[in-house]
Amino acid sequence: MGKTLPFIIGLTGGIGSGKTTVANLFAELGVDLVDADVVSREVVAKGTKGLTEIAKHFGPSVLLKNGELNRSVLRDKIFKDPVERQWLNSLLHPLIRTEMLTQLQNATSAYAILVVPLLFENGLDRLVNCTLVVDISPELQVKRTTERDAVDEQQVKNIIASQASRDEKLSKADDVIDNQGDISALRDKVAALHNKYIKLAAQT
Ligand code: ADP
Predict the structure, then answer these.
(1) Ligand 1: which of 19, 20, 21 to mutate, most ligand atoms within 8 Å of CB?
(2) For position 2, what pLDDT does the model report?
(3) Residues of the chain with pLDDT under 50
(4) Which of 3, 63, 195, 202 pairs with 159 at a CA distance of 20 to 30 A?
(5) Which residues pair with 174 in a beta bridge?
(6) pTM for this structure?
């Protein structure tokens, strides 16, 4: 309680753009990361209030034998039911937000990075001081994602279409990191931004 938030950079980008890669490069420079995907799993881990509420609402079929969340059963239950989906979102969004803020308050680096795939779509850009978008062309998104995951081209295109468009993200970004080059070029760009963010954080 009473802890203050650090200067926060919101890091985002479409699927396969290189968010994780960029976040890891910042971490190598000693920057503390908070990852929205990790937090969204933590708030429904075994023994949490979140999971208890979910099991109470949907019944024991959403639990695996070991007491963990059965994600595919929960997905089926909300898939065609907007009311249930809304119920789940109303439960999870505040839990995720509170946990993200707690982790950010515990950061000890000069500034912290909040990694959120849907930063603009979910309005979480309101939580951060500065936004950083990792940008590549849709063609490269398809290429890198199909090389990384067991998904086909059409599945990646569908995910890209469900996310904010490239133009929208670029227009909302405070900073853009072009990740169409190689990793060593990316490393240099991250180092330059790191210096900029240290200065910005010191001014606030
Ligand atoms: P995201 O977290 O945005 O989905 P990732 O960081 O996982 O993206 O990057 C997607 C894939 O592309 C990964 O396999 C990663 O290793 C690769 N990758 C990222 N940046 C580059 C780059 N500059 N050159 C080549 N491959 C890259």
Answers:
(1) 21
(2) 61
(3) none
(4) 63
(5) none
(6) 0.94
